[in-house]
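[SOLVED] Predicted holo structure with zinc ion

Edit: marking solved, answer below. Original request kept for reference. I posted the sequence and ligand SMILES and asked for the 3D complex as structure tokens.
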Amino acid sequence: MKYEQINKVKEMLEQDIKSIFDIKELNDLKVKYLGKKGLISELNQLIRDIPNEDRKDFGQAVNEVRSFFNDFYDTKKQQFEEETLNKKLESEAIDISLPAAKVTQGAPSILEKLIEEVEEVCMAMGYDVVDGPEIEEDKYNFEMLNIPKGHPARDAQDTFYVEGEELLLRSQTSPVQVRTMLEGKGVTPIRMICPGKTYRRDDDDATHSHQFMQIEGLLVDKNISLSDLKGTIDIIVKKLFGEDIETRFRPSYYQFTEPSVEVDISCFNCKGKGCSICKKTGWITVAGAGVVHPNVLRMSGYDPKEWSGFAFGFGAERLAMLKYDINDLRVFYNTDLRESKIFDREESL
Ligand SMILES: [Zn+2]
């Protein structure tokens, strides 16, 4: 009678295990048979009604069903786990036949490229490329360039002061000339250019920026005249804009040069006929320059009776805008890769 019960449970179990297809069904099955009120657990309750001499056999019979269940459970569980793992591996597999993700490549900044070009042509003429601090002392930025305190020439350069009236963000790269001359100690000839950032209080728009790059050059030697300056400028602009470009000087005024000139080049676009780039004049202003003022030489330790020199300053952005036909200064300082790529491509055409 009691054994019949065991056989019934066993038959039911054999039937049930045919329809177990996932881990949830397997666990439900475990509850059904081995849970607190599970069918196999309940068989154990029957043992109380079994005579003592038969209890051992009965217990063994129940244990056989339990073992049968456990074997099934362990095997099936392992099988399900392997299947899950395989599915996961399959879904995470790398398909090496798929096209690779594209790597976005940058391009050199147009401004940097232009500066490198000027550096190259100047280095070929024996110039050193020199660097200097962007936070500068008033004496290097102004005083030693013949612009004493209170001089009206300072008004033209709306300066950012950092601390009191002695430290400032350099308003021009010319202080690097002073520093280089001081290092030359009045005895070493100098050929240097300094490309670098300068700062002036200005509203940012398409043609103005509080920060801009100057490329400044200085030559100090014996018997240097304005015609040496003209020859040098000529070489630089021909390299940048083409061999047929002409240069002309117009008188100007700077505190640190005497005489001072503004440098015009013949319009590379209309070849002098007049267009929108040259404002119908046939000429484009590209630099300020001049023969180094005797006071500047003297203050930096060079005797003007013995030494002479010239200095020039290009606006790097202006050169790049002309060369690459850019009409908005802000292009140089945004980080849109597409723009530098466009110019990069045009360059290589
Ligand atoms: Zn023109």
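OP edit: The pocket of zinc ion is lined by residues 267, 269-270, 274-275, 277-278, 282 (CB under 6 Å). Thanks to everyone who chimed in.
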